[in-house]
Amino acid sequence: HNNLRLLGLSNKILLADEIHACDAYMSCILEGLIERQARGGNSVILLSATLSQQQCDKLVAAFARGTEGQQEAPFLEKDDYPWLTHVTKSDVHSHRVATRKDVERSVSVGWLHSEQE
């Protein structure tokens, strides 16, 4: 049935959310799907609030393998979220996305106790 599933993805957009939560097994499957989608000329949209640099590197590399490209993931600083990365056959475009002012907020954090207590 696997071939039928893959046929169902042809000419479609692969959309996956919360990809930072994938374990090693699911990450391997996701990378394979991304590579296959790219090889077929299809799009992939991946969503994550806390994607690590290592995960980003692997996912960009998977898409690059599918397009037979040599793209590399951008280096992400810890304060760079939200972040948008657009990978094509020949290039990687990345930039920080500004938070909308109407949803931006500050949260005060304080200690309830100290290590000395």
TrEMBL record:
Key word Nuclease present: yes
Keywords, ordered alphabetically: Endonuclease, Hydrolase, Nuclease
Domain of life: Bacteria
Gene Ontology molecular function: any one: endonuclease activity
Protein name: CRISPR-associated helicase/endonuclease Cas3
Organism: Escherichia coli
Gene name per UniProt: cas3
